[in-house]
């Protein structure tokens, strides 16, 4: 508990006013609206919703505006608001196989049932600044066609039919699902908790961990089986009526990573899975998540866990950006008493050191 110095409360109040003015900026320029943030900074909104664990585009846009574009601060704001909301239960598992696909690519098969759908992506753009975007740019109308009714089965399901990839794990009926937001994290953690942790984890941290597995720290040789982005329907089982009722649709990105597995004494060689799922269009996040998910399955698959990305406690204890930010940024708060104590101890030790290393003549004179 820190005691404010004289005048501290007024200084803090003025800091809040300064922040409000800095956030607004030049008032001769039109104020940015939540709709503008949601529509034109959509990927930032998607990240805040994912790592804030709350699907609400308007609230995520508000948090980004309030945080002056600092996405980690916006994530913190969303999580704080989320903690005030009542909980009525858990939704039914969403069926990503029935997703209304807006984008779908596979790096493993060129011709897949339902086809590759490039959708909105930076993948094929030139990384050159476009000055026209600063001049009231109006985009061309994109080509459209009738929505296809062809099925779009997951690539991993196609591999599964031939027994070339491990079976997709299924939860037992009635099995409880862990909730990191209600109970503290303990180790070892089951995969449901690990995936929750990764879904809420910082994208940059997961990207670095996933990258490390590709560079040899984890013996990971991945292929993107499929990335799909689109709308899925969310249902909630209503006990009053005895069946699941639709709540609405949300946008999700799913990544199924296909990884090598050499087999063991009891299992034949086959492909294994890494999985990522996030709100909105969050491809980098879900790919990183899938790489780390697979790395964290090392012991489950009988592999030696020697790399950072395979260390469950290391990854899960350091992936949360809100927690990490709080611990780092608290260093800005007053530590006057602690530092003066350290300073006094250091001076004492330096004095003792100087006396112990002084020439004999000086020691005798001192005596």
TrEMBL record:
Recorded hits in InterPro entries, A to Z, give:
PhnI
Gene Ontology MF terms in the entry = lyase activity
Q: Which UniProt keywords apply?
A: Lyase
Its name, as the record gives it, is Carbon-phosphorus lyase complex subunit PhnI
